[in-house]
Amino acid sequence: MNTVERLAQSDENADGVDGVSLQLVQTLTARGETFAAAESLTAGLLCATVASVPGASAVLRGGVVTYATDTKALLADVPKDALAAYGPVSELTARYMALGVANKAVADWGISLTGVAGPAMQDGHPVGEVWCGLKPPGVSYLDGVTAVRLPVNKEGSRAEIRRQAVVLALELLLQNLEGE
Hints:
Pfam families: CinA (PF02464). It comes from Corynebacterium amycolatum. This is Nicotinamide-nucleotide amidohydrolase family protein. InterPro entries: CinA-like_C, CinA_C. This protein is an alpha/beta fold. It starts with a helix and ends with a helix. It contains 8 helices and 5 strands. Strands 2-1-3-4-5 form a 5-stranded mixed beta sheet, with helices on both faces. It is globular, with a radius of gyration of 15 Å. About 3% of the residues have low confidence. It has a single domain, classed as Maf protein, CATH 3.90.950.20. Helix 1 packs across helix 8 and helix 3 packs parallel to helix 8. The longest helix has 22 residues.
């Protein structure tokens, strides 16, 4: 079973955001590592969720909200030609966002979220299409950055889709930390 399939079946997806956030902060603290986030559809919700955990300041370097397409280039260093060719909702854009925010914030890990929360399709992308980019420590080029399409429930409200994206992204980061 791959990471995305495990995330889709996780019991934490229902309401375990607090537990995942706490575990993430504890794990990063024990490892002496940090992370930064670039968020589009979640508009800062991931950073706010982690920041609610005591001790988060030791691991959360910062984040940027790249809600508008042009801010992905301005704040997360996504090349304008990549945005023009692939759009704001794509695997490649998520990878660039994760790399860019980690570099700008001088963080070990970079994580990004870009997608469509609804209520309607965006540029041909369906509601619930969410990409999460992940840049691990020691990676300075795009080749080492991954992105996965998160298995969010497309039938949920905007708020539910955004919350699911945060939980799934935090779980993905935690699984990658534990897998190293």
